[in-house]
Write a structure and sequence with these properties.
With 312 residues, the chain is α/β, with parallel strands linked by helices. The chain has helices spanning 48-62, 119-128, 135-144, 160-167, 193-202, 204-213, 219-225, 237-249, 253-285, 288-298; strands at 11-13, 22-27, 32-37, 69-74, 85-87, 95-96, 99-100, 149-153, 156-158, 170-174, 178-180, 217-218, 230-232. It has two domains: 11-95 and 131-250, 2-enoyl-CoA Hydratase, Chain A, domain 1 (Alpha-Beta Complex); 254-299, Lyase 2-enoyl-coa Hydratase, Chain  A, domain 2, CATH 1.10.12.10.
């Protein structure tokens, strides 16, 4: 059983991956994938291995031309107490002096492509490797993914898990969901998207309250303050998420991609401008005008742009 909310008739596993901390499925009838934290016994907290797998799955989804939407969620319920979680942030049990630490043999620098003979070397490397905080790389990947990422929140979204939902394009929440920022309780802080972008969603005063006080907020409260799009019956959460994904994937891929980057542009600075401009360049490459420029260069002649109008 993947999750009590998971409909096995709507999904099939994505082949080629052997994840331990995630499940990765593709919808059978729409152009969407489902990536889910699969550590419900620890409220879907992430360790470095989890982050590696999450980055790999998201990057794979990014490069699939027939996938238009990503659902990011957490499997459950917990076998310990029946509780639900999207993600509870970094696993404090593996947090070292300079970040989160790999367990023996977990530091898969080559995408997990080690052999049995490499075990001792991997173990030694893991023991010597510095702590990681590469969940921030995942945040940037979600931000720059050329398709919408929907956070599907069935329960707790806490700490670094709260920041992940914030950076997603949309958030759908179960009526059981609870949102909480615990950074100041564990001497951590997300000074990037998790805080500054949250302030864009809920306002400066409310964002500071969320971080400074560390209170629990219900799904309804989160929706009222602007960081959740819709609150749903728990049993209907993933079904509705699929409906949203289907609606999105029936739209123009180019429009969706360019709009996502346009929404990001005002808060992503020159990086956002580069991403948006890069996609605009790609569109320009598809025109006859661009092909004339390329052909003229290859044929060692002057380009003739006379038939292309100066649009206004």
């Amino acid at each position: 059983m993947v999750s009590d909310l998971f409909d096995p008739e709507r999904w099939e596993p994505v082949s080629g991956f052997d994840f331990e901390d995630l499940t990765y499925h593709r919808a059978t009838d729409i152009a969407a994938v489902r990536i889910a934290f699969d550590r419900p016994e620890v409220r879907n907290a992430f360790r470095p291995k989890t982050v590696d797998e999450l980055y790999t799955a998201l990057d794979h989804a990014k490069r699939q031309g027939d996938v238009g939407c990503v659902l990011l969620t957490g499997n459950g319920p917990s076998p310990e107490d029946g509780g639900w979680a999207f993600c509870s942030g970094g696993d404090q049990s593996v947090r070292g002096g300079a970040g989160y630490e790999y367990g023996p043999g977990e530091d898969d620098s080559a995408d997990g492509a080690g052999t049995e003979d490499d075990t001792d070397e991997q173990t030694e490397a893991s023991e010597q490797s510095p702590g990681r905080l590469h969940i921030l790389e995942v945040q940037r990947l979600i931000r720059h993914l050329p398709k919408p990422v929907i956070a599907v929140v069935p329960g707790w979204a806490v700490g670094g898990g709260h920041s992940l939902h914030v950076v997603c394009d949309l958030t759908l929440a179960s009526e059981r969901a609870i949102f909480k920022q615990t950074d100041t309780d564990v001497a951590s802080f997300d000074g990037g998207f998790g805080s500054a972008y949250l302030a864009r969603q809920v306002g400066q005063k409310k964002a500071r309250e969320i971080f400074f006080l560390g209170r629990d907020y219900s799904a309804t409260e989160a929706a009222e303050m602007g960081m959740v799009n819709e609150v749903l019956d728990h049993e209907n959460l993933e079904g509705t998420a699929l409906e949203w994904a289907e609606t999105i994937t029936n739209k123009s891929p180019t429009s969706i991609r360019m709009l996502k980057y346009a929404f990001n542009l005002d808060s992503d600075g020159l990086v956002g401008q580069q991403v948006f401009a890069g996609e605009a360049t790609r569109l320009a490459y598809m025109t006859d005008e661009a092909q004339e420029g390329r052909d003229a260069f290859m044929e060692k002649r002057e380009p003739d742009f006379s038939e292309y109008p100066w649009h206004f």
